[in-house]
Design brief:
- The structure is a single chain.
- By secondary structure, the protein is of the alpha/beta class.
- It has eleven helices and 14 strands.
- A six-stranded mixed sheet has the order 6-7-8-3-9-10, sandwiched between helices. A four-stranded antiparallel sheet has the order 2-1-4-5. The protein has a four-stranded antiparallel sheet with strand order 12-13-11-14, covered by helices on one side.
- 35% of the residues are buried.
């Protein structure tokens, strides 16, 4: 559906996007995840044809976005970080205006306005001026304008920025409802947002693609060695003696606790939970608590984008 090949974008001497390539299929929700300055907004502007790349190409359903701009852009709906709404228009007037720009007219235009106002749940404010609406409703109107032409691809740049928790949940539900009917690409630096709605994640940093896959795949790919944390009532020599019978333990950290127990952290070449349990049981030393240590998407994100010492000079998300 969308294919980016070797995209590069320079702003003067700053390279905002560097040799970026990816493929996005139809009907799924994709998240561009990265810290501020990672290149998410620049990538989205390139994907929508709002910016021309310094090098590289983008195809939309097989159409070159720059050589076949009108046909390719007809397949796109775009919500920038700041919704492009006209505050002195009513919701109805604005959506009709956008629909006309999409070459809709007559009954077809009215049908699409009715459809997107219902889909984004703004029917009750259709005749109100946009400037009187809450930020959450303005975001919904912004998504409605992206949907008005019934495009195959919806691109949303930070769609929940500045919203309160209730509004965020509502916008997430709205985005999730688009799954299967549209290909959705959204950008965010909020991990919970990406995990809540996205089928696939692309992690960007300094304009490069650091990793991509489902949240579960990324967690598995970067999990490294298996981890296990135990709570036991035994001294360190006893714990070490018990665990000599368990092969593949690469690291053992023994930490005494104030209540007389000890926290034992193990790092192994593979999960050996049953063997560890049986070893302590055989020695007559009960395990009070056992917990697997798993890598989360947050751990993956921090591992791939931990560059605080290299803070981008411009301070914005290009």
């Amino acid at each position: 559906m969308i294919e980016a090949s070797h995209l590069t974008k320079w702003y003067g001497r700053h390279e905002a996007v560097s040799d970026l390539s990816f493929q996005l299929g139809a009907g799924s929700i994709y998240g561009l995840l990265g810290p501020n300055g990672a290149g998410k907004s620049t990538t989205m502007n390139l994907m929508t044809g709002c910016l021309a790349p310094t090098a590289g190409t983008i195809t939309i359903d097989g159409l070159d976005l720059y050589k076949n701009a009108q046909q390719a852009k007809g397949k796109l709906g775009y919500l920038p970080e700041l919704p492009p709404v006209y505050p002195d228009m009513t919701v109805d007037e604005y959506l009709r205006f956008v629909g006309q720009a999409r070459k809709l007219k007559g009954p077809a235009l009215q049908a699409r306005v009715d459809a997107v106002t219902a889909q984004t749940q703004v029917q009750d404010v259709r005749r109100r001026l946009i400037k009187t609406l809450s930020k959450g409703y303005r975001q919904r109107v912004g998504i409605a304008q992206a949907l008005i032409g019934d495009p195959e691809i919806i691109i949303l740049d930070e769609p929940t920025v500045g919203l309160d928790p209730k509004q965020i949940a509502e916008i997430r539900d709205l985005i999730a409802s688009l799954r299967g009917k549209h290909t959705v690409v959204l950008s965010s630096h909020i991990l919970s947002e990406v995990q809540a709605v996205c089928d696939q994640v692309l992690i960007l940093d300094h304009g490069t693609l650091r990793a991509s896959g489902t949240p579960v795949e990324l967690e598995r790919r970067f999990s490294g060695k298996a981890g296990l944390t135990l709570s036991v009532r035994a001294d360190q020599p006893t714990v070490e003696r018990i665990l000599r019978s368990v092969p593949g333990i690469d690291r053992l950290v023994y930490t005494p606790q104030p209540d007389g127990t000890a926290k034992v952290t193990l790092e192994m070449d593979e999960a050996r939970n049953e063997q560890v349990f049986l070893a302590f049981s055989k020695a007559g030393c009960p395990i009070l608590q056992m917990q697997e240590t798993k890598v989360s998407l947050e751990d993956v994100f921090l591992e791939l984008t931990d560059h605080a010492e290299q803070e981008v000079a411009h301070g914005g998300d290009l």
